[in-house]
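Example 4.3 (complexes with small molecules)
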Amino acid sequence: MPPFATPPISPLSITFDGQTGTMSPEGPVLTRRMSDLAGLFADTAAWEAAVADGDPVVYQVASSPVPEAEGELPQSITTILPGTVAGEFHMTKGHQHPNPQGEIYLGLSGTGGLLLFDGERPQWIDMAPGVIGYIPPGWAHRSVNTGDEPYRFLAVYPGNAGHDYGWVLANGMGHRVYRGEGATPRFEPFTATP
Ligand code: S6P
Ligand code: ZN
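Answer. The structure with D-sorbitol-6-phosphate bound is encoded below.
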């Protein structure tokens, strides 16, 4: 075996269900509840009320068994449940890869978007089944459910990219994304959470 391989992972086939967000074989499954998104929504009172009112699940991330290790390409399916906090759409925490490396997302079900921010410029990619969103190195990224049903996407990323959540807490994502007229989201400039 060449030295760049990471035992004990062998070639494998992974099946997934784009309608349920499950993978088989399955690795870790992460659940993010409203209380895990402290400091991210603009309306702190509305966020606190949602936490007090059952602390609902906002999203889940189901990973394959491929490890987050140098040289590997882990995959995960994120399911963001529909909803808002005072009109601001349910979203992932968002992160930077401290080891700047690219990533691809593939829309599986529902509708959403990919908000990217390089510290100066916010960018938005509409996501739906069959759309590949490309995240270049150096761009923080957050996913948003802009629809009324679960939004799911597959992510494939370098195993040594890492996840820096503090960067987004400190710098924001350039925009906030709210329910707008009809199916079109409304974007507002980022304001720090009070
Ligand atoms: C990993 C990739 C996704 C996210 C997932 C949850 O690089 O971008 O699997 O981890 O969508 O988002 P977050 O911001 O809570 O990690
Ligand atoms: Zn990422």
